[in-house]
UniProtKB/TrEMBL annotation:
This is xyloglucan:xyloglucosyl transferase. It comes from the Eukaryota. Glycans are attached at residue 101. Residues 1-16 form the signal peptide. The lineage of its organism: Eukaryota, Viridiplantae, Streptophyta, Embryophyta, Tracheophyta. PROSITE patterns: GH16_1, GH16_2. It comes from Forsythia ovata. GO terms for molecular function: hydrolase activity, acting on glycosyl bonds; xyloglucan:xyloglucosyl transferase activity. Residues 219-249 are annotated as: Disordered. Residues 219-235 have a biased composition (Low complexity). Its EC number is 2.4.1.207. Belongs to the glycosyl hydrolase 16 family. XTH group 1 subfamily. The keyword RNA-binding does not apply. The keyword Transferase applies.
Length: 249
């Protein structure tokens, strides 16, 4: 049993990214910290400022995993955002946003997809566990057919490519990975009725075990075609959920 446990630990470690190598802290004036030799990253929010980070590289299709432990206690008014996005007025974006709440009330997981600068595709979910007690895995699988949002390996939403019906789909703009912790008391909790309690600050969210091994990282001079050909043997490039998957799960 010890041999199996050690092997599993080494396997996880081999696939976990390093925040020093994979990300840059982009704002927050010291409120973002990379710890434990790059294995842990924390974001903090106080009344002066939030904080955030961004991947060094861009991705065009792939499966992106990140483990998060969200702000504990009274997190009302705070938003922890973890998303893929390109830049500009016609950007594409794939969002996880975690809307804080009063102590004892459930977090709301807010999802959205932007294409060509337009969103309006929100879906929200109540998490079935306390996301502040331990790390949980939040995954985005993005391929030419589908975008699948998953929590701890369980799909919660699928956004399918319906270009044949006139619905734009993000497929040509490489995206960076972003995350931020910020104050959104004007809308985040009960439509802004519950405000941020700054006596609870600083608010802190933690990140570990980033994994983009099953993703197509764009380097200078590469294209979407070369990216797809390079990854043509990977099953995630064609993965999609059946029509009635939500009912079955």
């Amino acid at each position: 049993m010890k041999i199996i446990s050690v092997f599993f630990f080494l396997l996880v470690a081999a696939f976990a990214g390093n925040f020093n190598q994979d990300f840059d802290i982009t704002w927050g004036d010291g409120r973002s910290k990379i710890l434990n030799n790059g294995k842990l990253l924390t974001l903090s929010l106080d009344k002066t400022s939030g904080s955030g980070f961004k991947s060094k590289g861009q991705y065009l299709f792939g499966k992106i995993d990140m483990q998060l432990k969200l702000v504990p206690g009274n997190s009302a008014g705070t938003v922890t955002a973890y998303y893929l996005s390109s830049l500009g007025s016609t950007h594409d974006e794939i969002d996880f946003e975690f809307l804080g709440n009063l102590s004892g009330e459930p977090y709301i997981l807010h999802t959205n997809v932007f294409t060509q600068g337009k969103g309006g595709r929100e879906q929200q979910f109540y998490l079935w566990f306390d996301p502040t007690k331990d790390f949980h895995t939040y995954s985005i699988l993005w391929n030419p057919q589908s975008i699948i949002f998953s929590v701890d390996g369980s799909p919660i939403r699928q956004f399918k490519n319906l270009e044949s019906k006139g619905v734009p789909y993000p497929k040509s703009q490489p995206m960076w990975i972003f995350s931020s912790l910020w104050d959104a008391e004007d809308w985040a909790t009960r439509g802004g009725l519950v405000k941020t309690d700054w006596s609870q600050a600083p608010f802190t969210a933690s990140y570990t075990n980033f994994n983009a091994d099953q993703a197509c990282k764009i380097s200078s001079g590469s294209s979407s075609d070369s990216c797809s050909k390079k990854s043509s043997g990977n099953s995630w490039l064609t993965e999609s959920l059946g029509q009635h998957w939500a009912r079955k799960n």
